[in-house]
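Researcher: I'd like a structural prediction for the single chain below. Treat it as a standalone chain; there are no partners to consider.
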Amino acid sequence: MKKIITCMIFGLLSLISCTEYDEIAIWNKSEYIDSRLAALEELCSRMNTYITSLQLIVEALQGNDYVTGVTPVVENGKTIGYTITFIKSGPVTIYHGKDGQQGTAPVIGIKQDGGIYYWTFDGEWLTDDRGDRVMAQGMAGKSAYELAVEKGYRGTLEAWLASLNGSNGNDGKSAYELAVENGYRGTEEEWLESLKGDNGNKGDNGITPKLEIREDGYWYISYDGGQMWTKLDRATGDPGQNGDSMFSDVDNSDPDYLVLTLSENGEQIKLPYYKDKFDLLFVSGTDKVKEMTVYCSAGTTAVVNYELTNPLNAQISIACISHSGYKVTVDKTGKKISVSAPDDPAAISEPESGILVFASDDERTIMRKLVVKQMKYIEYTAHQQLGWNNGAYGPRFGGKNCTFLDEQCTYDKNTKEGKWAYTGTVERVNDGAFLYEDQIISIVLPSGIEIIEGVAFQQSSIETIELPNTLKSIGNTCFGYSKLTRITIPKSVVSLDRAVFSKCAELISADIQANIEELPSNTFEQCSKLQNIKLPESLKRISNNTFINCSLLEEITIPDAVTVIDDKAFSQCSSLKKVILGTQLERIGTNAFNRCSALETILCPDETPATLGKGAFPVADGWTVTNASYRIYVPDEQLETYRQAWPDYWAAPNNFQITKVIYGISSMPTQ
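Model: Treating it as a single chain, here is the predicted structure.
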């Protein structure tokens, strides 16, 4: 019995020992499985990252992208990969390594066939459910020329580029019309859209395979972003060490290409460095730019220098498109582009126009842009160069989108001719623009100016000025006390403020064509050399003191529409000999022609006598009848009516003598 019990105890101990050992083994095995699964999942994530990197590289090849830099990725002092930067694409990081041991991850790679990269799986073509090979790149985008050919264009690339020059209007046909003549069947909008971009359309995207490991322990692959999955081999064995990279080598020693070697099949991918491709840049001083602003005035030509980088000596075609009135020519020998503006500024409807410049080597077409701004000038003469912004209160001019270009302003000290260059529209001459300016001689105000503000040229040395047909308003005492000698006011002017030409001692003649109804007070006050004056037919009122003391004025014709001549309007015009009044006069103010001592003839054709203010015309003031120096001629049939209405000038007694100066027109001496 004792022996039996002893055996049972040893048996139980053995059982207990075996159970403890099995539990430890099972625990250890579970730990191993978990760690291996985590490693496989990490491998799966890494593989998907590598696949994405590989496709980005293929897309860079497809998109004619170029390498601008290669930066090593260092870990623990060892280079394990590289970050590649491109001109257009984002940066791509790749890793390289040796084949690992015992790894069972799918070997995904690419292989080229017929110029197209396809995905491979364990060295074989990767196929979809239909058995078609899966492309690693999208279908190449089309250039503008290729798109035109697809639409029926039959000409060569050179002919197509040359046809782009026919768009300036003067040639009679646009570039689109020339393309249609050569077979193009698309709309003009489609044709213009095809010209956009450097590399044609982007093309369809390639397919990116995606891997995952599922709970059943198998690899799965998807070709449609994870919507449909295909089961592959079992994910067994340990992941390889440093063996899951798709690249076995990265060679950056070649000065022309970055060379990537695929781990799977040893195939090499060559990525060109940027310097290998041609480029066209505009030269602006020390800068080289893809877009440049050009200033061009009517009847002139602006020349733009360009630099063509062409290390491979490819045949480069260059052509320009202008959809405005500017003509464009290319001098390939001198590397110059000439932009010519029409003689008539009105031929350019927009202040800013774009000119597209295309360069093509048959494989790649790049587009650059010239922004042409219509440059205008304000011309002047002066004893020295004047600044456009040196007015009494700031800039001399103002306007809409108006920008003055200091670098384009000129002055010739020999001829005394200067120009202020600007873009946009000058709309006004500012208040005090040339106030006290003693160097200016003359100025031509450009079309677009509508307002000359008050005292703009007051007390300046201005002698002549040309006013534009856009001018509407002239401010108070604008030219007062200046040295102005002549003036023509255009029909566009509808408003004159007071004393505009007051005390212009050098003013000889004034032609007022303005569409105004009133000459304000003191307009030509004390213009002592004024000899010739022409008043507009629209005039209805001549205000007080308008021509007072214009001592050299000999003759004046009052327009028929004038109804009022105010007080002292022509007082002290000591050389005035002849006055022709209008047919609708209603009132002549006090002393209107007072002290006009040289007066000989006043012609008054109106059938109805106007109301006269006291001393409207000179009276005897002690003269005898025989030395009264003038006569008033009125319609014969209204002679008595006038003599009765204006008794001071026919029969009214005064303290000295009787002035008798009213006679019929028929008695007026012939000239």
